[in-house]
Amino acid sequence: MQVQDKLEIKPKNGNSTKPLLGAVPVHKFPYDWSLKDANFTKDKGKAFSCFACGGGSTMGYKLAGFDVLGCNEIDPKMIEAYKANHNPKYAYLEPIQTFKLRDDLPQELYELDILDGSPPCSSFSMAGNREKDWGKEKVFREGQAEQVLDTLFFDFIDLAKKLQPKVVIAENVKGLLLGEAKNYVREIYREFDLAGYYCQHWLLDASKMGVPQRRERVFFIAFRKDLAEQFLEQVDMFTVLPKLKLEFNEPPIPFGTIKENNAEITKENKLANSEKIRWDLRQPGDSSLADCDMRLRGKNSFFNQSFIYNEKVLQTLTATKIGWNILFDEPRKCSKLEFCLGGSYPIDYNFIENETGYLIGMSVPPVMTAQIAKQVYEQWLSKL
Fold first, then answer.
1. Best exposed site among 62, 271, 344, 366 by fewest CB in 10 Å?
2. Which CA distances in Å does 90 have to 108, 120, 216, 382?
3. Tell me: the pLDDT tens digits for 236-283?
4. CA dihedral sign of residues 165, 166, 171, 176
5. Which runs of E-coded beta strand occur in 74-144?
C-alpha cells in the first residue's frame, strides 16, 4: 500500500474519490484501503506478533514495510481469521506461558527487528473491575483457556528476553497509568531492564494519527541496550534513554467522512425497541441515550449507548458485537463498513466467524501501529 501523498476527498459513503492534484499531504497512511490492492514492501525488517487477535498490529507493520513472520494467539477463532487474511509463515495457537518455553522455535524468530504484543488488558481497563480482578484466573472469552491476565505482560517480557529482538513494542490501555496500576508500570520497566532493554512509554491518541476514531492507548517501546549506545541522551540527572520522538498531530477525521449512506439495517446494527423509544426523544447536544432515558422516566440508564455526531470523531470502538454507539441522525448503530473504516481495517477483511465489532474493538488500529513502526524504523533501525 502506497502512502497517501495527496489529499483525498471522500464522500459520505466511505468510498474514495480522485485526489486533488497538487494537494498538501494530510495523512501518512490510508484508513480506507483493501488487502487486495495493498503493496506490502517487506523491506524494513522482520516482525512477529503476540496476542495477535485478528492482526490489527500485523497489518500496521505491513503498511510500514515490515515482513511479519507470524503470530502467537490463544483464541482459536481469532487465529483462523489471522491465517485467512495474512497467510503467516508461523502461527502458534497456545498460551504465551507455554509458547515462551518452546525449544523448537525457528532461528528466524531469534533474529527479529520487532517483537510486537498487546497483552490482554481488561484487568486495567477503566471499563473493567481493575484492582478487584488482579491475580484472579479469568477466561477472556469463550473458547480461551483460563489464565491470570495481569501477569501476561511479564510472560511477554520473558519471551523478549529469550528471543532478543532489536525492539519490543507493547500496547495496552490508558488505565495502566492510573491509580495502583502505576506500580505495575514500574515492574514492567524493571523487567525490561533485567532483560537487557531500555524501556519508554507514550500515551497516544489514534485520532491524531490518521485513524477516524478516538482511541487512547499506552505503547511501551524497548530498545536492546547493546544496540542503543549511539542514540542515548541524558533525560535527567540519573537517566539516559535512546532518543525517540513520537509526536503525531494529523487532522481529525469526523464520522461524517466515513459514514455509509443508505447503510443496510441488519440484526447487528438495528436498535432494540427500548433503544428506539429513547432515540425518538433525543435532542441536539445529548451525549447518550441516558439523556433520553432521563426525559422518559427520570432515570440515568442506557449511558453506554453514546451518540455519534457526523461532525465529531467516532468514539472508541469497544469489543462488542457491533458496538454501543448510536448514530444521532439515523436510528441504527455502526455498519460493518463504518467499523472497518473507523478502525482503519481493510474493507475486504475476512472476519470468518468473528463478530466485526468484537474483532476490531480488540485490535490495535493498523494505521496507529504503522505510524509508530515507521518512526521506529526511521529513527532507530535504519541507522543500525
1. 271
2. 10, 21, 30, 25
3. 999 999 999 999 999 999 999 999 999 999 988 999 999 999 999 999
4. positive
5. 90-93, 114-117, 137-138
Give the pLDDT of residue 90.
Answer: 98
Neighbours of 99 (CB within 10 A): 18
**Cα distance between residue 226 and residue 223, in whole Å:** 9
What cell numbers appear for 26 in the block?
A: 494530510
Going by C-beta distance under 8 Å and a sequence separation of 6 or more, which residues neighbour residue 325?
A: 305, 306, 307, 308, 314, 315, 317, 333, 334
CB atoms within 10 A of CB 215: 23
**Residues classed as catalytic:** 121
For the stretch 134-148, pLDDT in tens is 455 555 554 555 656
Q: How far apart, in whole angstroms, are the C-alpha atoms of residue 358 and residue 352?
A: 12
Residue given cell 515490515 in the structure block: 66
Q: What percent of the chain stands above pLDDT 70?
A: 85
Q: Classify residue 182 by burial, with Cβ atoms within 10 Å: 0-12, 13-18, 19+.
A: exposed
Distance of alpha carbon 53 from alpha carbon 38, whole angstroms: 20
Q: Is the pLDDT of residue 383 over 70?
A: yes
Distance of CA 191 to the CA centre of its chain: 24
Mean of pLDDT values over 39-45: 97
| Average pLDDT estimate for 348-371 | 95
Q: Cell 425518538 belongs to which residue?
A: 280
Contact 293, 274 (CB under 8 A): no
Tell me the fold of 46-251+361-383: Rossmann fold (3.40.50)
Cα-flanking dihedrals φ and ψ of residue 234, to 5°? -75, 115
Task: Collect all residues with Cβ–Cβ distance below 8 Å to 3 and sequence separation of at least 6.
Answer: 28, 29, 30
Please give the model's pTM, rounded to 2 decimal places. Answer: 0.89
| CA–CA dist 372, 344 (Å, integer) | 15
Secondary structure in 3-state letters for 262-289 = CCCCCCCCECCHHHHHHHCCCCCCCCEH
- Comparing C-alpha atoms, which of 172, 209, 257 is closest to residue 367? 209
Indicate the range of 25-39, 167-181, 194-208, 313-327 predicted with least confidence: 313-327
